[in-house]
Amino acid sequence: MPRTENHSTLNKMPVSRWVFRTVEKMNRARVIDVGAWVRFWRQAYEELGGRSSEVASKGCPRASAYGLWFLGRLLNGHRAYQVWPISRIDAELGKNAAYAVIGADLLWQGGEMSRADLWAQVQHRYRTETGREPAISEQGEIRVVLSLFREKQLVRGTDQPA
Predict the structure, then answer these.
(1) For residue range 1-40, what is the model confidence (pLDDT) as tens digits?
(2) How many Å apart are CA 32 and CA 146, to the nearest integer?
(3) Full residue range of the structural domain in which residue 114 is found
(4) What is the DSSP letter of 159?
(5) For the chain, how many structural domains are there in total?
(6) What is the pTM of this model?
(7) Which residues of 6-42 are buried (b: 16+ CB within 10 A; e: fewer)?
(8) Are 67 and 98 in contact, with CB atoms under 8 Å apart?
(9) I need a labelling partner for 96 at 20 to 30 A (CA). Which of 3, 35, 86, 118 fits?
(10) Is residue 76 part of a domain?
């Protein structure tokens, strides 16, 4: 039997639950800074049963989820949808947030695709829009985007609830 990709988990942790538990903590604390996100990301991971400090501190998926939340791309994330150029996202929030936003935009434009195909398109668009070389391999940020998209937890500007 062929192995299938499971996009709803990241290191055996349910992506949406991890992301939205972190969002809930951010909103409850009424903070938006990345330092709080890092702290709450780890707490959410541990509350969901995570035991690996290496997984809890992996920066790529954490930064991609933060970028999606900060820029209002999460359904019921309670953040206004913000349109920033990729170069600004890259400069202010980092390359992983830029990869996540590009990935979300590509999924909205073209629908379902494999992780490998999406990553190749993200790399191309990142290179085109920033003039910088993207990472060689995907490190969790694309899995976060795919999971949230497939679970209908990402929004376009016109989908954001009031």
Answers:
(1) 333 344 487 777 889 999 999 999 999 999 999 999 999 9
(2) 24
(3) 12-153
(4) G
(5) 1
(6) 0.90
(7) ebbebbebbbbebbbbbbebbeeeeeeebebbbbbbb
(8) yes
(9) 3
(10) yes
